[in-house]
Amino acid sequence: MHPKTAFSEDVALNMLRSDLHRWYLEHERPLPWREKPEPYGTWLCEVIMQQTRIDQGTAYWERFMHRWPNFQALANASVDEVLKEWQGLGYYSRARNLHKAAQIISEEFPNGYPQEMNQWLALPGVGTYTAAAICSICFETPVAAVDGNVLRVLSRFLGIHEPIDRPSGRKPLETFAQAWVDPKNPGRHNQAIMELGALTCTPNAPDCASCPLQKKCASSFMPHKKGSLPPFKQGKIKVQDVALQFHVIVHNGLVLMNKRPDSGVWGGLWAFPTSEKPGLPAAETDQPPASLNERLISRGPCGTPVKHLLSHRRLHVQFWLWLLPENESLDWGEWHTWESAMELALPRVLESCWTDVKNSAEQKESKTVA
Ligand code: SF4
Fold first, then answer.
1. pLDDT in tens, 242-261
2. How far apart are alpha carbons 262 and 272 in whole angstroms?
3. 20 to 30 A from 136, CA-CA: which of 97, 184, 244, 293?
4. Residues lining ligand 1, CB < 6 A?
């Protein structure tokens, strides 16, 4: 590169940084983890906020900080307690990884915490973005933290129309982001771009008139019709329909609950035994599913069927009631009262229909007994 060009680029980058930082001084939202940034709260916030709205995530962050204020406290909790506190946030592997990582940190750094990018990257659930955010905010490591907000701002600013889920689109964005990081204050710089993406360069209605990057932005004068601005993606995940049946098995007022395996949907959470098959459910719900077990007596559908969307599966959920007769036994899980079952870490879909299913099951069970 010609020295004059390099010099001009440096000056331009510096000016852009100053514009961005001035904007951030005025617009930074007062979020609790920004008051006194430290590694534990920053890490917790980064994990909770993945795939989560900020208003919803803030309440979870505050509860976690109150209950487990440091790595050691979280490491000493049981995984069930952590999953229960996480309930409703979805993507439960994040909670299990959070707990595992806290245990590793408390064992390997008994009086502290990791401070290097590679130490954070070695922990479960910590990717490049999270490690960069923690290290730049807490240790002033000059690395770019590139999340979805940053990709959106920079792809528009640079006019990158290549798909950002392909190296040809993503690489120039990461290279620019790294060149642009403020070496003196990388944490605030990274947070400023993310904030710009969250508040001004929003997905569907960027407010270019009040954007500090407007004068140099390749997209500010383009039509802002939906879908016309970067970022673009090549691959879209196809959503698959799945018919899922929850088997509500009751016995003397108790209900059978299973702990799901750690991997897969709702890993480590508690639920009724399930069966599922790809596609839509049969329209009729008044026919019993294939017999689960010869000791069980089918009592028909219970509660109202619901639909529940996961990242790439649309679940068509039905509940089916089964009675286990007086002198029979079944060792498929744990028997609970409806009240104690409700205290377990449940998938959100069960939590939302719990009262409906419980009332319907109790009504049908009492009719049978009568
Ligand atoms: S000028 Fe508009 S499109 Fe460009 S970065 Fe700012 S808000 Fe986004």
1. 889 999 999 988 999 999 88
2. 16
3. 97
4. 153, 156-157, 200-201, 206, 208, 211, 213-214, 217, 219-220
Residues with a known catalytic role: 46
Domain ranges of the chain: 3-216, 240-369
The whole-model pTM stands at 0.76
User: Could you count the other beta carbons within 10 Å of the beta carbon of residue 208?
Assistant: 17
**What pLDDT does 6 receive?**
41
Residue 86 Rama label (left phi>0; alpha psi -120 to 50; beta): alpha
The rounded Å distance from CA 44 to ligand 1 centre is 30
Fold of 3-216: Endonuclease III; domain 1 (1.10.340)
- Contact (CB, 8 A) for 243 and 281: yes
pLDDT at 2: 38
Mutational test site, ligand 1, from 154, 161, 176, 220, max ligand atoms within 8 Å of CB: 220
Name the residue with the closest Cα to ligand 1, atom 1.
Answer: 214
Residue 1 has pLDDT above 50, yes or no: no
Distance 364 CA to ligand 1 centre (A): 59
User: Domain 240-369 has what CATH class?
Assistant: alpha beta
For residue 206, give the nearest of 240, 166, 157, 255 by alpha carbon: 157
Residue 325: helix, strand or coil by DSSP? coil
